[in-house]
Amino acid sequence: MPNWIRQGLRTGIVTTRYPAAPDPLPTGTLGHLVVDPERCRPAAHGDCAAACPTGAISVDASTFRLDLGLCIQCARCVPACPAEALAFSSEQEVAVRSRADLLTEVTQR
Amino acid sequence: MTADTDLAMARGRLLESTRRLRRSLHIRHVDAGSDGAAESEILALANPYYDIHRLGFFFTASPRHADILMVTGSVTRAMAGPLRTCLAATPEPRAVIAVGSAACGGGIERAPAVLGGVDRVVPVDIYVPGDPPTPLMLLHALLLAVDRVDQKLHGQRHQVEAAHG
């Protein structure tokens, strides 16, 4: 018991200050997938969709569609993309009020 | 009439004396067909690092005492009924949080026993993507449900020129 008290006092406060202050993403953890629309070329190839095991990414003719509600953060699409348009964000504030807010679309004209 | 006035006054006094406690909310977790990963993250919310009790959130064992339902997993045929019953037992005002990608979009299981995302069965107020979402993502969802933080992620539609790249 005295040891526990001593250890507790020595350790100090470990609790995160979120939401008063931002909390960094733990190392080795992936945030959510983001696509760079400047680099994405859905009309040229659909390698990311072929690599995606859950169907979170679909590419047809000239449109890239990403549904974060299906993404399991396996990151197979990241090395598959020849244009290096896909990356994981370190953002943790990902909760949304509507299902449509989890969708991203890139259309190439 | 006097009874009504008395009641209104008593309610007013109660409201005044409990003003500082009004932000306390109770959470009921419902496993609708999860693989257990999201449960592990929900459990971590109560540890000393995340410590949701400091923000007034508590877990409860009964939906009758709950303000927020956290539903994990893609809903299986067997759990659809219990989930509806659980929602019916939760008093208004309430919020339903779909925890994890499986609860948001139906997951990767394409089996006859799986119905799909939570919103196929009950109305969902907050969606948290991630497989599983980190405890901080869940904390953001809880605070978003009570309007204490802002939504950061929004749906995007980009139009790009065919010529680039």
Describe this structure in words.
The complex is a heterodimer of chains A (109) and B (165). Helix content of chain A is 17%, strand content 19%. Chain A contains 3 helices and 5 strands, in the order αβαββαββ. Chain A has a 3-stranded antiparallel β-sheet with strand order 2-3-5. The longest helix of chain A has 10 residues, at 2-11. The radius of gyration of chain A is 20 Å and the shape is elongated. The mean pLDDT of chain A is 87. The longest helix of chain B is centred in the N-terminal third of the chain and has 16 residues, at 2-17. In chain B, 32% of the residues lie in helices and 20% in strands. Chain B is an alpha/beta fold. In chain B, helix 2 links the parallel strand 1 (25-31) and strand 2. Chain B has helices at 2-17, 37-44, 77-89, 101-105, 135-145, and strands at 25-31, 57-59, 68-72, 75-76, 95-99, 114-116, 126-128, 156-160. Chain B has 5 helices and 8 strands. The mean pLDDT of chain B is 87. In chain B, the strands form 2 sheets. Chain B has a 5-stranded parallel β-sheet with strand order 2-1-3-5-7, sandwiched between helices. At the A-B interface, strand 5 of A face helix 4, strand 7, helix 5 and strand 8 of B.
How many helix segments of chain A?
A: 3
Give the topology string of chain A: H per helix, E per strand: HEHEEHEE
Percentage of residues assigned to helices of chain B: 25-40%
Helical residues, percent of chain A: 10-25%
**Sheet with the most strands: spatial strand order of chain A:** 2-3-5
Explain briefly what this protein structure is.
The complex is a heterodimer of chains A (109) and B (165). Chain A is 17% helix and 19% strand.
Keywords:
heterodimer; A: alpha+beta; three-stranded antiparallel sheet; two-stranded antiparallel ribbon; 3 helices; B: alpha/beta; two-stranded antiparallel sheet; 5 helices; 32% helix; globular
